[in-house]
Specification:
Elements (H helix, E strand, L loop, with lengths): L1 H13 L2 H18 L6 H8 L8 H26 L8 H12 L3 H34 L4 H18 L4 H16 L1 E2 L6 E2 L13 H18 L19 H23 L6 H14 L12 H24 L5 H12 L8 H4 L1 H32 L4 H20 L2 H19 L5 H23 L11 H20 L7 H7 L1
Antiparallel strand pairs: 1-2
Length: 502
Amino acid sequence: MDSFSLLIEGFGTALTPQNLMFAAIGVILGTAIGVLPGIGPAMAVALLLPVTYGLDPTAAFIMFAGIYYGGMFGGSTTSILLNTPGESASVVTAIEGNPMAKRGRGSQALAAAAIGNFIGGMIGTIALVLLAPTVASLAVNIGSPDYFAIMVLAFIAVTSVLGRSRIRGFAALLIGLTIGLVGLDEMTGQSRLTLGSLHLADGIDVVIVAVGLFAVGESLWVASRMNRKLDKPIPVGQPWLGRGDLRRTWRPWLRGPVIGFPFGAIPAGGAEIPTFLSYVTEKRLSRRKDEWGKGAIEGVAGPESTASASAAGTLVTMLTLGLPTTAVAAVMLAAFQQYGIQPGPLLFEQEAGLVWALIASLFIGLTLLLVINLPLAPLWAKLLRVPRPYLYAGILFFASVGAYAVGGEVIDLLLLFLIGLLGFAMRRYGLPVLPAIIGVILGPAAEQQMRRALQISDGDVVGLVNSPMAVVVYAIIAVILAWPLLRRFLPKAAPDRERIDA
């Protein structure tokens, strides 16, 4: 009941004309940026992060909520129309969504994706309301060894499920941890990796790192591949669903949150795994096996609902523990830090008004997203005709302006483009960007928790595993690391069953 009353107060804050306007702006901007090829919600939030410097924190995070879900919808739009996923969570949507568009059913695919995002997000946000305060109250009793173990789990889980190989994932994590070391040691005051520059004594701003790796790195990567021809945009018309489509989609819409929310709430790498599991589940349960691979609408509805619910689950971990498990959560954590707010167990007590206004704005943003974007789908399709040279030149311009606004120093621009070149190199050699962002944000915090735990135990390494929770977390880490080896000893499915399922 207490959570319900706090949520009502949050709605009172979020529904003021000013905050409602920022929610609508966030939804429109997030969708407009997310609908462009190669730009997902993480890049949209990172690109617009500097724009909110002058805003009140509550208004800024309400706007970010709209950008978050708007960017997710935009990513599914490019996935369906151009077979160009705006984010990794939209990859599965392209499997059935793009064939639907090629068959002239792009409007139905967009509608299934939009309604799936709405239903999955609503159910996931309701679960966030019910579970987040409980998780936060339990997290108050977590000590330094437990926090360090959880952060190590986040490092291992994210690097293990992303990228072409674990080696590349750990290499990206090492890059992020190295960038996070730049600056003064908070405990000893010694400078680290500053190269004698006083400007680097405070470290490299997370906003510059996020915008550089996402926006600049992606722009350079696209520019290097401009000689490749793109498919022409497909007209989508007015989105609508017939009775037959609704009969086939309502069950996948409801099953999606059951799969997506738990995966989002644990450090498991975001929505990539649950969307794939949703696709496999819907394929197994479908009675129309012959349509799969040719445009089965269930393959759009289920994964999109799953991805949206997974995003809500991600916010549980980010708000209550301060652990970002996806790229968007990492950038939003940087936004909290930009306002001097540290997500964690005490956030619901110290910043209760902001947190519940943010949660209420998720409901508002999802509703606005459905109301605004269904009739505007043809307009988003026209935005795909913007020539990429103009598109990414504009992105570089706004990224530069945002980076300069961080500190008003020319060196910030140099750092932005150096990190952008690093992001380009990471894409060139198949290194995932998310582990690097996680390393930059969580690296310093993990180091502090480790050193505190060692100080309490007088330098004894046993101090890192002297609590039941830490032991359980390290056991989970051991299973994740040993899984490739353990999988060899598991019984394999019979070949005839595989052929039947196919």
